[in-house]
Amino acid sequence: MTPNSVESEFEENVGSCHDADEMFIDINKDLEGSTVVPDDEVQVEPPRPGMEFDSEKELIAYYKQYAKQEGFGVRTQRTKRDDDGRPVYLTIGCARGGKYYPKPNTNISKPRATTKMGCKVKVNATLNCHEKWVFTTIENSHNHITLSPKKSRLLRSHKHLDEYSQRILKLNDRAGIRMHKNFYSLVVDAGGYENLAFQEKDCRNYIDKARFLKLGRGSDALNVYFKRMRDQNDGFVSYMDVDDDERLRNVFWADVPSRTAYEYFGDVVLKDTTYLTNRYGMPFAPFVGVNHHGQSILFGAGLLSSEDTHSFVWLFKMWLDCMKGRAPKAIITDQD
Predict the structure, then answer these.
(1) Quick check: 198 and 160 in contact, CB under 8 A?
(2) d(CA 204, CA 152)
(3) pLDDT digits (tens, 9 = 90+) for 298-309
(4) Are 242 and 215 within 8 A, CB to CB?
């Protein structure tokens, strides 16, 4: 390590246990158990000063395995890099380490939850002259109760969605199988929930991300199409909802006939997402009404990345804005 080493501290996890920002909550409640490692898992020895590793990746993999068997999550707490940006010093510790420092203008009467409780467990490692990573100092005494390995496997730093499960999730999603049944097929395949290193919400997040990545390649073409429609029709309205990475999530559009029809027949609206999905797996969500001839008419339509609260709230807000804030007297959905 050179004298001009650049030190950077960060809270980015090694796939670590999630940290909210404020008030302490006990994530170990109802999760206490022994730290006996099952026979089918390889038990690693505790860390000690002088242990060597060929790479940073190998060091992290070892400590994560040790943390899993001892029942705690981990995260990278500190790293130092040399002038070339190469890591030369590393601190990995318990995910419950550190303290909460209130942000400016924080409402102290409504603190958010945090798992931080100042746990001192950590290992420090440095890259020596032989290009080996070596443990220099070790602290193994927790100030909190640890979990059993069967429960610690669900801490964020130990979760893992393997490639086989990813393929099954994608295939089932393309076939239109809902996430609950999709996940349950993996449970059956693995022989029980206890044999999975992930939960249903991890599968849901994976599929949502896969849809975003796939949809992102077609969002530009959709935007061009909407622009052309607006140029040709003054009353054409469209909205596009994107995530923090500017990837398309949800879409809504309505043409002039739809908006005009709503002015006359918008007392009762049918909202149904049980229609077919497109090749991106996005449910088609039309707003439908009935005219004075008893015929179905379209008041607008949308494509949703998922049928969650955010998507529906966004869709209804955009539709209401399109209809100049006039809400219907009643809405009928396929769920209720």
Answers:
(1) yes
(2) 21
(3) 999 988 877 778
(4) no
